Known about the structure:
single chain
Amino acid sequence: MIDNKDKGLARFIAPLVLGNMLNPLNSTMLATAVLTIVLAFKQEPGAGALLIIPLYFTSAIGQPLMGRLCDVFSPGKINLFGFLLILLSGIVGVFAQSFDWLIVSRILLGLGSSAAYPSSMTLIRQRYKELKMDVPGLTLSIIAIASQVSLVFGPFLGGILLESFGWKGIFFINIPLVLIGLLLSVKNKNEVRVVKTQRSKTALQIFKDLDPLGLLTFCAFLFVFLMALLYPTYLYLKIPAAVILLFLLIVAELRHPKPFIDVKVLSLNVLLNTTFLRQIGISFIIYLILYGLPQWMEQSKHISPSSVGLIMLPFSLTAMALSLLIAKNKNYKLMLSTGVFCIIVATIGIFLLNTASSVHFIVCITIIMGAALGILTVSNQATLYAEAPDDQVGVCFGLFRTAGYIGAILAGSSLKHQFKAGATDAGLHSLAFFSLFACVLIVLFLLPLFFKRRKIEIDLEVTI
């Protein structure tokens, strides 16, 4: 039971939860359908990455962009705009006549789904600020759980849709889901409105508040940086270009009164920076397993897509259960450390897998990884929430998701190279090696929490 002071929470949060489910759901739902789509359009085996990478690439740029728009305009309107773009992506995907149109659909999906997370966190903070209440941990956990459940439930749903309706079912499912989200959003009367002083500003003033120079420079930097990660050729050109663009971004943001990215805050706040870096490592490992393990099970162990989805289902259930259990826990040092321990154990388990491994052993690994996902997502998100400045909530949470997508893009690039000749035992073990290296980096990024004396906890006590 939710606090009586916030009786409208269920109606308020329903469309936000649905919106936050769509990006991760579409990310992993495709995992079981990549091979079928590639064969249907007579593409090379490695072409499947072209359906994975554009979504994360667009999302990586779209998250902070939508976050900035939320900080300047009404976050509710940005949320609705995102739903409409996802609806368009579903229609384009269903009626696609070529592989290129499927790529366009994924790009639209990435941009549209980018609006959900920063707009949700901005709306939540505004809502409880008006109610003069601390944000309940349950509210933050619900958003985190929505992403987690859809992230790991995706392969299961994708397998069912693929076997029942073919690959078009993967794209069509977005249409009814978005229509439900739009209906809930329109009926929601409790949305926190944009600050009234914003309405008195001229179009030119609003345009300046958007910091177009900083925004464009950031997008250009991120584009060059990600291209260097994805395609490590001509690095002698890409790396200097990225450095120059980063320098121009810093100069532009230092000069702007309301910068798109407050580099002063980022440069002084170690906990904020390490939270972003941890998210890159966590996402890298999670997506390696979410995409790599199903492909390996289908190709090397010859397990059907629907059965693979069932095997991955405990991943979702464990993540959801752990998220609820730690909602009241305020010791984030302990929670983050526990999550890292779980992710290390799961990575070691991947090293031990081979075609002779039992399904029970695979399920055990997915359960441990689900525990890591549930603990790390909630605790890392809550740490960021405590550190984000009030006037930078949208951008900070947009950057948080961008960090996650950078990890996902790195994972997609690794899968492309390691599974080039097929999802073999050797390729899976190579992915485990990269995961273990990422674990080492995550541990290093935990250290500032133990050496800096600063309260980063938020009150997660709720009345149930």
